[in-house]
Amino acid sequence: MTGAPSNSDSSAIVESMEDNPDGGCHIYRNGYYGSGISVVEGILEVNIIQMTSIQMTESQAENPLVDFVVTCQGSLPTDVCTVVSDPTCQVSKSVVCDPIVISDECLLTIRRSFEEPGTYCINITLGDDTSQALASALISVNGGE
Question: Where are the transmembrane segments (predicted)?
Fold first, then answer.
């Protein structure tokens, strides 16, 4: 290697550039690189443990309400999304997402309204910055009954 500078440091970064036909250039870098990895627990599991229809008067039965009691395992979620679909879980009718604050134990009650009495597929997703978990249920909503 006549004329090449001798360098015994194997961690030196060497840069070279070459012209590119499209007018730009590429930069090639050789050497050692480091990166940090953080392992987070994430939300491991979501369970719908109770579904309760809210009793309303007949005049209020136009949009039935249901309370869903939900628990989770792992890290505490920061948001909840509810997707209400047809009974086959294929056609989405509504999506509602809300931020939540849970300080200690992952146990929360989610109240959702429905367009009318009927059978629905419901997906509840709890999420945070790094993970999310889903629970699904088929529910029959009976309005004011």
Answer: none
* pTM check: above 0.90: no
CATH 2.60.40.150 fits 43-141, yes or no: yes
Could you list the pLDDT tens digit for every one of the 145 residues in the chain? 444 444 444 455 555 555 555 566 777 778 887 888 877 788 999 999 999 988 766 655 577 889 999 999 999 999 999 999 999 999 999 999 999 998 888 999 999 988 888 999 999 999 998 899 999 999 998 854 4
